[in-house]
Structures are given as C-alpha cells and as structure tokens.
Amino acid sequence: MKPIKVAHLVKQFNKNRVLDDISLNIQPDTIYGLLGRNGAGKSTLFNIITNRIPMSAGEVTIEGEPIANNDRVLNRIYLMSEGNLYPSRMRVGEIFKLTAGLYQGMDLELVSNLTQQFGLDVKTRFNKLSTGYRSILKLIIALSVDVDYVFLDEPTLGLDANHRELFYDALLDSYAKRPRTFVISTHLIEEIANLIEQVWVLQNGHITINESTEEMLQKGYAITGPTEDVVAYTAGLNVIGQDQLGNLRVNYVYGELVGDRAIPDTVSVSHIDLQKLFVNLTSQEVATVEN
Amino acid sequence: MRTKAAFKYQFQNLLKLLGWSYLWAVVGIVVLPFIFSLILGQADDYSLSSYIPNGLTAIVLTIFVFVTGGMTYDGFKLFIQNGIGRKTYFRSKVYALALIIVLGEAINLVYGALYQRLIGKSGTRLFGLSVLYGDYFKNSAANLLAVLLITLLFIACVAVTGMVIGTILGLFSRRVQVLLIVGIPILMFILLIVLVVLNDQSSLKLTWLWQFLVFIIGVVNDNIHSGHLVVYAPMISGSVYIAVMLSIAYYLTLKLRVPR
Question: Closest residue of A to B5, CA-based?
C-alpha cells in the first residue's frame, strides 16, 4: 500500500482561497489528527481527497493514479462526514448490506458486535435516527469496511461520553487487528491526543504544523512565574500565547528553549497538552491584534 | 471497476420502484373508481373495460423512466459515499435504465396481448405507435419489429431527457432547483403562446422547423397516411437524440459534487 500524495492543492470558493498550496503525504498504517479552527478548510480537504468536490489546482494521487472518478483507488478510501448521504428511508441493516456490496469487503461480524455494543437498532430507518446514532452508524461502517484509508470528519458529533469512549476503544482495537490509516478531524483534541501519531494543523489555508504528536508535545512549554522573570526568560523565544493573573504570568512557548540560558528559581517550566498547544498556536493572530 | 455492483444495486432499486408504480397505477385507475362507484351505489354500472386503458403499462413505464432518469443527485451522493466515482455511477445507471426499458416493454407486450384478447375492441393495436408506422412493410412481423424498436427508442428518448434534466438540477442547490422547476415551465408556456401566435401570422407549417419536425418522425413528401410513415426516420433521429442527450448527461454528471 502506498501513501496518498497531495501536491500543491488549492481550493478557491469564488474569491475565498480556503486551501492554498497544500502538500501532504498520507502514509499507510498511521493515525493522523487534522486540527484546525472552524472554517479552516478541514472538511474541504477531506472532500477533495475523496473526490466529492473538485480542486481548483493541484493533484491528489494514490500509487501515482489520480483519484478523480477512479474507482480502484476511491474504493480504498472511506470518508465519514457530517453530511447524510445515505437514502433517508433506508433501514440501518440495509445500509450495512448495501455498503458491503459496493465496497470490496466489510467485516460483518464487527458490524454485528458494534451494533450491539452501541445499541443501534438495525430495523430503524436512517431518517428516524438521532444525530448521535447517525454518527454511530457511520462510525460502525468506517471501522468495518475494508479500506486502507479512513477519514473521520467530526466522528463524535452528537455522541455522549459513554459512546465516545466506546468508539475510541473500538477504533484502537480495530487498528490493532487490521492496521490502516485513520485521519481524524475533531475539536475534541484532548480525547484523541493519545490516539494520534501525527498532527497536522491547518491554518489560513496552509498546513502550519506537520509533526509527530510526540515531537510536537516536546516542543510545547508553559513558562510560569513573576511577569518580569518570565518575560526576561522567554525573550527571543517563540512565544505563542500567554495568561496573566495579577503578577503571575504564563508564557506558552513552541520550539526549543535556549539551552545555556539559566532558568530563574522563580520560574517553572513544564510541558503543555495538545489542546492548549493547539489553542495557542491557532490564536496567535488574534493575540497579536489584541496586543 | 465496481460497475457490476453498482448496476446490481441500481437495477434492483429500479425494479422495486417499477413494481410499486404499476401497483399504484392499478390502484389509482382501477381500484379507486371501483370504490367510488361502490360508495355512490353504482357498482352495477362499473365496467373494467371502461376504466382500464389499453396503454396502461406503457404510460406507467414512460413516466417511470422519465422520473427515475431524472433522479440523479441522491444516487450520486450514495455512490460517492461508497467509493464509486461519477463515471461508474453514470454507466451503471444507463445500463440499469436500459434493462428496465426492455423489461418494461416486454411487460407492455404481454399486457397489450392480454388486453386485446380480454378487453380490447376490434381494431385495437398492440402498440400505440402502430397507428403511425404499423403498415410500412408488407410483412406483419417486420412491422411488429419496427414498431417495437421505435417504441423502445421513444421510451429511451424520454429516459435520457429525464436524465439530462435531473443532472442539470443536481448541479444546483434546492432553492435554485425550485426556481428552475417553476420558472422553466412558465417560460415554455410563454414560448408556446408565442409559437401559436406566430403560427397564425406566418404559418409555422411553411417554416423549416415544421418541415424538420415532420421529417424526423417519418413524414416524407407529405405522405401522412396512417401506418405508412417511414420507420427509418424515427429510428435514426431517436438514436441521434439519445446519443446527444447521453453525452450531455455524462458531461454534466462529471460536474456533480457533494456538498453542492
């Protein structure tokens, strides 16, 4: 199995350039997290990769073959999106059967197990399902269908905490049994932080960060202490955000700290979690304007 | 290629819908009038032959292929969700519709034969188009075959017209679709009025358009004798029309997107 190559991808809606010169290699058997704020273009990127909408410029290929109307490669990809593309009057069981017929294969035993675990009634019509159960239906398909690349766009939309937990467990279990690529786009970053191996941050039409989760977390620091000391210590570093409470200040830094600069006794240095890192990285512009 | 799987789904779906369409047609045309006559106490006056039309299945099939040919977007979005591209979707739909047309026409034949035997009055023809083309050849089998072929082509023309309209609508949002569905018939009506007025003033019958229209249905040298119209004309014009409309529908299908 070869990677999906996205090269110099541009997507423009009228005068609004949503994606600008995006280049990515989506490697086999890897779990990715695609992070971005609302309207960043995450769904658009997914829709282009799965040939649902055309790109304005660039190329998306698998094994050197363009994806456009190419069944051989499209049949190796599944996109679970917010849009409801299944016939509204079709019953859940019929949707499973149909998917098994149109894709090259489906683990019907897994479908049966997950359907039971999630409490999804296979006799219910699609239009009678709640938002959460529609997500569950699509998630069951996403985990059971025999494809090499699974794109999950807001997979936990409408799911309660128990069902989200169940889904994350099922995803890891499925990945362990049959490794394949998952690309997950979600705003619940904390919940997927332990799942994803590689992080992409999509901002202003560009992929601003493309690193392993571990590398990224290693580069994120919270420098806490009296304002004067913190400002002095972080001078010249890549400060991506800050919090202030009285004279106590936290500067968030992304990147290497200066090795030979002594840390004052009044200042503490700690790593920050993925969500905090993401929030600060993607609020930089706002912070600059406010300052 | 997933054409076989896509075709199987489309064909089964269409077959099921066709069955329902026949059922509803029978309910609407035969059962409901009978119930009304029962309610009104006129059951004795009810006669099956006066309610059931000769071309019932043909009418149902023609409307059916137009409507299902036009149902483009729902099928497209289901297929793209299942990793099947636009080309395969288009191909499988054409194959499924073609098979439905052949099957529907076979049902028409059986229905027509039964109607002739059980209900029909003397002189009732098996095909409606026999009135125009049924006596072109001296051999009755050749005439039957020619009319059968023309009927198939006619229904296919209706189907591809539906496909083009459906695909055009599939490119637009619901709001624009409503505007088009309401606006275009109004424009057509105005155009019709203009044509009627023109016909009064300058005699449309003398224009090239009229000559062309009658030529493509098989009127040559003003020969409009019933049953003797040239059978080759609608065969050729029908085939050309189908090819052109399929090309347009194919081109537009490649432009479909989700979300719109």
Answer: A102
Interface of A with B (CB under 8 A): 47, 50-54, 68-72, 74-79, 83, 85-87, 98-99, 101-103, 147
Cα–Cα distance measured from residue B94 to residue B67, given in angstroms and rounded to the nearest whole number: 14
How is chain A split into domains, by residue range? 4-204, 216-290
Could you tell me the pTM of the whole model?
A: 0.90
pLDDT in tens, A175-215: 999 999 999 999 999 999 999 999 999 999 999 999 999 99
Distance CA A261, CA B138 (A): 107
Which pLDDT score is estimated for B212?
83
CATH number for the domain running over A216-290: 3.30.70
CB A112 within 8 A of CB A102: no
Is A98 in Cβ contact with B81 (below 8 Å)? Answer: no
Task: Give CA–CA dist A126/B140, Å, rounded.
Answer: 53
Mutate to test the interface with A, among B7, B74, B82, B88 (most CBs of A within 10 A): B82
Token pair listed for B231: 């059978």
Least CB–CB distance from B9: residue in A69, A83, A102:
A102
Asked whether the beta carbons of A100 and A144 are under 8 A apart, the reply is no
Q: What whole-number distance in Å separates Cα of residue A224 and Cα of residue A269?
A: 7
* Cα separation of the two ends of chain B: 26
- Closest partner residue to B88 (CB to CB) among A50, A71, A79 is A71
Out of A50, A85, A99, closest to residue B77 by CB: A85
Q: For strand A149-153 and strand A181-185, is the pairing parallel, antiparallel, or unpaired?
A: parallel
A244-254 pLDDT, tens digit per residue, is 999 999 999 99
Residues in B closer than 8 angstroms to A74, CB to CB, are 80, 83-85
Nearest-Å Rg of the Cα atoms of chain A is: 22
Q: What is the pLDDT of residue B205?
A: 63
State how far the Cα of A230 lies from the Cα of A240, in Å rounded to an integer. Answer: 14
Supply the angle between the helices B3-26 and A92-102 in degrees, to the nearest 10: 140
CATH architecture of A4-204: 3-Layer(aba) Sandwich (3.40)
Asked whether A136 and A159 are in contact (CB, 8 A), the reply is yes
Whether the Cβ atoms of residue A252 and residue A276 lie closer than 8 Å to each other: yes
Instruction: Please determine, for the modelled complex, whether the ipTM score is greater than 0.85.
Output: yes
Task: Specify whether the CB–CB gap between A167 and A155 falls below 8 A.
Answer: yes
Chain A nearest-CA residue for B253: A69
A54, A55, A37, A50: which is closest to A151 by C-alpha? Answer: A50
Tokens in use for A9?
């991808």
> ω into residue A264 within 30 of 0, thus cis?
no
- Give pLDDT tens digits for A89-111: 999 999 999 999 999 889 999 99
Smallest Cβ distance to A70: which of B77, B79, B85? B85
